[in-house]
Design brief:
By secondary structure, the chain is α+β, with helices and mostly antiparallel strands. Helices cover 25% and strands 26% of the residues. Strands 1, 2, 3, 4, 9, 10, 11 and 12 form an eight-stranded antiparallel β-sheet that branches.
Length: 201
């Protein structure tokens, strides 16, 4: 005979099962919560690593790279490529001056380390030889400091904008040659606007 207020075996069993279910739900909640925190943490770390060491988006400012790139286009910069390979002639690069404000400029590499550069009568001469393979569609009207022969240092590059007559580049003393340490990566594709999406050559 069960006394008043005394729980039966079945009551105790049901209560125990109820508590067990509740504890199980709490454990599942915390497992899910910590799993979510871990995923967010990993995503942040991976995102930071990609931006810092892998790829980055840069917005084109100004018309200096017309017709290859236009003002306000968003491009993708490969920051890994030059850690495993050399900068090549006519690569389109993003660089940031060491003494600048962190702004990324975009130009095309024309001269490589150790070469001599001269611009005469609209033509580019490298190591005394006229280049017939330049990707520029316009005749160069401004020689700038390259009117006289320039010899690049061991880690220096001579860059120009594709819009050769409307580009502030290595032909001007306020820009000059670009150091390897200032090159952030290779511009590989246009992302936005979507109508312009494609590889950069």
């Amino acid at each position: 005979m069960r006394r008043r207020g005394q729980k039966s075996y079945y009551d105790k069993h049901n209560l125990s099962r109820h508590v067990s279910k509740r504890n199980s739900k709490i454990k599942r909640f915390f497992r899910s919560f910590w799993r979510w925190i871990l995923l967010v943490f990993v995503a942040v770390i991976v995102g930071y690593a990609i931006v810092t060491f892998g790829f980055q988006t840069v917005t084109v400012v100004g018309p200096s790279m017309n017709p290859t790139l236009a003002d306000s286009q968003v491009v993708l910069v490969n920051k890994i490529v030059y850690k495993v390979s050399d900068v090549k002639r006519y690569d389109v690069i993003a660089y940031s001056r060491v003494d600048g404000d962190g702004y990324y400029d975009i130009k095309r590499v024309v001269g490589l380390p150790g070469e001599t550069i001269r611009i005469s009568n609209g033509d580019i001469y490298i190591n005394g030889e006229r280049r017939s393979d330049v990707p520029f569609t316009m005749t160069i009207q401004i020689s700038g400091v390259a009117e006289d022969e320039i010899t690049l240092g061991d880690s220096e590059y001579f860059v120009m904008g594709d819009n050769v007559n409307n580009s502030e580049d290595s032909r001007y003393t306020n820009v000059g040659n670009i150091a390897k340490t200032e090159i952030k990566g290779k511009v590989v594709s246009i992302l936005l606007p979507r109508s312009d999406k494609g590889k950069v050559k």
